[in-house]
Write a structure and sequence with these properties.
The protein is α+β, with helices and mostly antiparallel strands and 192 residues long. The protein has a single domain, classed as 4-Layer Sandwich (Metallo-beta-lactamase, Chain A). Helix content is 35%, strand content 19%. It has 8 helices and 10 strands. A 6-stranded mixed sheet has the order 3-4-5-6-9-10. It has a two-stranded parallel ribbon with strand order 1-2. Strands 7-8 form a two-stranded antiparallel ribbon. A hairpin with a 2-residue loop joins strand 3 and strand 4. Helix 3 crosses helix 8 and helix 4 runs antiparallel to helix 5. Its cofactor is Zn(2+).
Length: 192
């Protein structure tokens, strides 16, 4: 999904172990052992899977989320762009780019699309979300569930729209607590 070592640091070893013909897909030349540089929304097949790269820049300039579909299911691998109830740091991007990535790209996927994020920060993200929306019952329920389940991935796009403050910046309940109605200022204030 991006070039950071905790996501792609093992690529060269995997290629060596699996043989030199192992494909490595990504959207950034900084990804180790990259063999296939993808283009935004240029779908390709991996066996029976349909894969659509979605450029979701902000965490890095080359961040890509991969929407993977079968005939009956859809999943998206978001790396460090979208977490359960949170999002990644803006290392190489802007609040506008994160808003676009979360709400105009990922948020437009089918609500049943499963979300596989790059890190399991669910409990701390949900505590933060609860501090923004203390009366949001969906957040309360998800936090209680997460406290009793050591593995919280996957989520779904539909669930994220209910619990993720970064995908809820248009909600009056979020705007009121943060004290901003400008969506970009709101997104930036939630991160900082």
């Amino acid at each position: 999904t991006h070039h950071h070592h905790d996501h792609s640091g093992g690529n060269e070893d995997l290629v060596r172990l699996l043989g030199g013909n192992t494909p490595v897909y990504g959207g950034d030349d900084r990804i180790p052992a990259l063999t296939h540089k993808v283009e935004d929304r240029a779908a390709f097949k991996l066996g029976t899977l349909d894969v659509t790269p979605l450029f979701t820049v902000c965490h890095t300039r080359g961040s890509v989320s991969f929407n993977v579909k079968t005939a009956t299911e859809s999943a998206v691998f978001t790396g460090d762009t979208l977490f359960i109830a949170g999002c990644g740091r803006f290392f190489e991007g802007t609040p506008q780019e994160m808003h676009t990535s979360l709400n105009e790209i990922l948020g437009k996927l089918d609500n049943n699309t499963l979300v596989y994020c790059g890190h399991e920060y669910t409990q701390s993200n949900l505590r933060f979300a609860a501090s923004i929306e203390p009366t949001n019952q969906d957040i309360k329920n998800k936090l209680e569930w997460a406290q009793n389940n050591p593995v919280t991935v996957p989520s779904s796009i539909g669930e994220e729209k209910k619990i993720n403050p970064f995908m809820r910046v248009a909600e009056p309940s979020v705007q009121q607590v943060v004290g901003a109605t400008d969506l970009l200022k709101l997104l930036e204030s939630c991160v900082n």
